[in-house]
Design goal:
globular, 16 helices
Length: 375
Amino acid sequence: MHWAILGLLLLAFVVAVPMTIAARALGRRLGALDGAGVAGQVKATPRQVPNTGGIGIAGTILMLALLGLAMLATPLGPAIARHVPGLAEHLPGLASRVPEGLALLLCVLLLHIVGVIDDRRALPAVPKLVLMFAVALAAVLLTRTRALTLLDAYVGGPWLSVLITVLWIVAVTNAMNFIDNMDGLCGGVALIAGGALLATALIQHQWFNAAMLALVCGAVLGFLPFNFPLRKPASIFMGDGGSLVCGFLLAVLSARLTYLPVNGAPISAMNAHAVLVPVVVLAVPIYDLVSVTFLRLWQGRNPLVGDLQHLSHRLHQRGLTRRRAVVVICGLTAITAAGGVMLPALQPWQAMLVLAQTALVLVVLGIYELGLRSN
């Protein structure tokens, strides 16, 4: 079954490459290029580059996921399963996820449409945030996705778990949208974080979530050669149509994952740290979201209106080239993500070391930034 999931990743990559080329050609033909943003937003000088890359990413994910769900819901599923080692025994469980999968894809499509509209004519920040909350709530209710369900017994029902999950989805969606500000940055972070969550899903035998994460990773991997080429500038941008989809899927799928041991042991003081896996994996984009929001509030600015104060911009302003700033942020994401993958299998004292390592990465990063600011 592990090889079947990795095969999905390869398939998504193969499909995403021509989809990205087609999205780039479409963007050029329609003049769908990088724009100035909403009133009051501070952006880098717009470049004559299509920002339609999200169409290739979302199109790949939606198309392959719909084909997979259709296969599961028809006799074609058992016929194919006979030729895929390990798939037949998991087919009934995967088939039971079809309604949830369709609901998830509907939410992805709605958010993608919002992003594409925003890429063409920038939407005001508040209505856009309200739409994010609405889609997040719909995803929680329709796909039965809830994090920290253990809280239900202590607060008299699922309301707190639902609230936390919605806030998590909106926060991560925005974090990935915020970090999409340099060539290769959002795609690189999404690929690393998605890969870590995919590894966790495979270890925990969470096949539906693993399949969706494989599609995300494969689609982003097929997009990156055009967004972060070795020697040339990007020939296509992801746009909100892609960053919102990547952030939303990473948020929802990380909330759906079960991080406890495969044997189903109940949560206890010995394994409670496992629920922190998504926070550790996504620590760097969350750091960027929190730090830039704090800076804007400190300056009396609207935290929802973009500027050039993100982590990547701050590193660039302090001496790193844009490409090196992207590599540094992706490297830091890889460090925290590696710790997140290991977290569920660790003893409490070992988990404390991983959590301390993650905190130390962010603290050192913050000290480095403050030190450069004072020089």
